[in-house]
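User: Some background: our group keeps a shared notebook of sequences we're curious about, and every so often someone picks one and asks for a predicted structure to add to the entry. Today it's my turn. The entry only has the sequence so far, pasted here. Could you supply the structure so I can complete it?
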Amino acid sequence: MVRKLDIEQMDRIRGNPDSSNPDLLELRDLIIQLLPIGIKGMSYESLVSSNMLEGAAEQAIKDVLRLQVELECDDQFLPTVLKFAVRHLLYDVRYQEWKSKTKVEGIPAVPIAWRVKLAANPALNYVHTIFREELNENQRIAIQSMVMFRVPKEDVMIYLGMERCDYFEMIHNARLRIKQRLQIDAAREK
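Assistant: Of course. Here's the predicted structure to add to the notebook entry:
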């Protein structure tokens, strides 16, 4: 049975956020117990291991304490920690799934079957031409990795050696260039 944290436990966690704190360990166990409910019915459910549950719970607690989320004994604290834990767990599962599908480190290559479909479809070929003409290599790698292979953006950032803000600025600029090119081509067609 799942229970709420009482005020005394919350005060002890707030006062001693050390990992050996028994109240913090109890919170961790509670999160591990509730995490499977948070992902029930998702396609990733079968890929979750107990180590992933433990890692997600620990990371969520660290994030909540690091961000100094208000530790109050109300109905918002535990759901907040669980949201962090579910996000970490889903990231870990997607990352492991991606790692198992790719044989080499880095960004996966486009399969030959996809290239055949690209050549056969004029709309896809047009988009590919715009990507090739308008975007630089890093922009193409980033968009291709996220859209075609669902690579987590954090991995693409590491692969490209970019900081978070630079990465998002690069993606934003790529979207603007694609939009601008589409508008120019549409104006020519009229």
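Suggested note for the entry: The chain is about 70% helix and 0% strand. The two ends are 66 Å apart (CA to CA).
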